[in-house]
Design a protein that fits this description.
alpha/beta, Rossmann fold, Response regulator transcription factor, Arc Repressor Mutant, subunit A, about 200 residues, phosphoprotein, 6 strands
Length: about 200
């Protein structure tokens, strides 16, 4: 049996995935959760073979969860199922050790096939996502991404400086550089562009 933890913040989608996977003779859904922190806790509790996760969830994203499992050396394999064909997301997923990355609108048979391949240690990436990744090079540094994530959360420069223990002028410099790289008129537009391209 392939033991699976599902992480998906939309209740209807979570229920549908669970019901469809439970119809498979070789798949057992051992837990379903709605956010990243709960996903980490469920993996620690149930020790599944595969974590099937969305990217955008409350708290930690699916990419954050995958990166944390990778850092811990957790043997659970990760399959991301998302609506977003963003090259930046795929690059980050691969860096985090994710084996599978498929789109939610794929037929259920394709999803189940991807799950079985990931369980077997094979890499599975939707062709549309592979094309998007080649067309999208992330110009941002880790620090610039970190600051733009704070902007997405609505933090002012002063708040960012306080949270990250930086001088406010340093925050402005980093954000100005990020704006220039993204050809954005202001920090909010820079954050929006970076998020849309899957770089945050």
């Amino acid at each position: 049996m392939i033991r699976v933890v599902l992480a998906e913040d939309q209740g209807m989608v979570l229920g549908a995935f669970a019901a469809l996977l439970d119809l498979q003779p070789d798949v057992e859904v051992v837990a379903g959760v709605a956010d990243g922190d709960a996903a980490l806790a469920a993996v620690a509790e149930h020790r599944p073979d595969v974590l099937l996760t969305d990217i955008e969830m409350p708290g930690r994203s699916g990419l954050d969860v995958a990166a944390e499992l990778h850092r811990r050396g957790d043997p659970t394999r990760v399959l991301i199922v998302t609506t977003f064909a963003r090259g930046g997301y795929l690059r980050r997923a691969l860096e985090a050790g994710v084996l599978g990355y498929v789109l939610k609108d794929a037929p259920i048979a394709e999803l189940v096939a991807a799950l079985r391949k990931v369980h077997a240690g094979e890499r599975v990436v939707s062709p549309e996502l592979a094309v998007a990744a080649w067309d999208s090079a992330d110009p941002l540094t880790d620090r610039e991404r970190e600051l733009l994530r704070e902007v997405v959360e609505g933090a002012s420069n002063a708040e960012i400086a306080r949270r990250l223990h930086l001088a406010e002028g340093t925050v402005r410099n980093y954000l100005s550089t990020a704006m220039a790289k993204l050809n954005a008129r202001n920090r909010s537009e820079a954050a929006s562009i970076a998020r849309e391209r899957g770089w945050l």
